[in-house]
Amino acid sequence: xxxxxxxxxxxxxxxLYRRLRHELVTAEAIYGTILIxxxxxxxxxxxxxxxxxxxxxxxxxxxxxxxxxxxxVAHHGKLGATEIPLGESLAHAVRHSAGLLTSAILxxxxxxxxxxGIIPEDVAYDLALSVGVVVLFLLxxxxxxxxxxxxxxxxxxxxxxxxxxxxxxxxxxxxx
Length: 176
Hints:
This protein is mainly alpha-helical. The protein has helices at residues 3-12, 16-24, 27-43, 49-75, 86-102, 105-115, 121-146, 151-175, and strands spanning 77-79, 82-84. Strand 1 (77-79) and strand 2 (82-84) form a beta hairpin.
């Protein structure tokens, strides 16, 4: 391979930032963040942080399993002349659905701190919700930065993403 061909091949390899961005900023991560926050709002009524932690953790795991199942079934089969084996479909579904699980980590950590008595339960509850809004803000910033937007457009995009997330969380809570 010539030096020029090697340089062209190297330039096509995505940077670590781009790979991480594509792994983290997914529809599943955004949906999971909104879903977890909505669950926290809906379930909160006089529940202890431990009870809320169990409900949120179990629910997010069940939603993840359902998503993996649906994605496996949808991806399995034939794509043109290529047959996609079940194992490959399952692996694709697990990778594709990871955002549903990872989006629950920070809120669950906040609730666990409250359940363990490290911070007051009401503070843990507020932090669990706030962390979701901050994550949506950051996901919005990353999405706009990927498109090469100026810093203030990235900031505005993050703000709008967070506020839309808050609106969806409130709607889910009101309609439940």
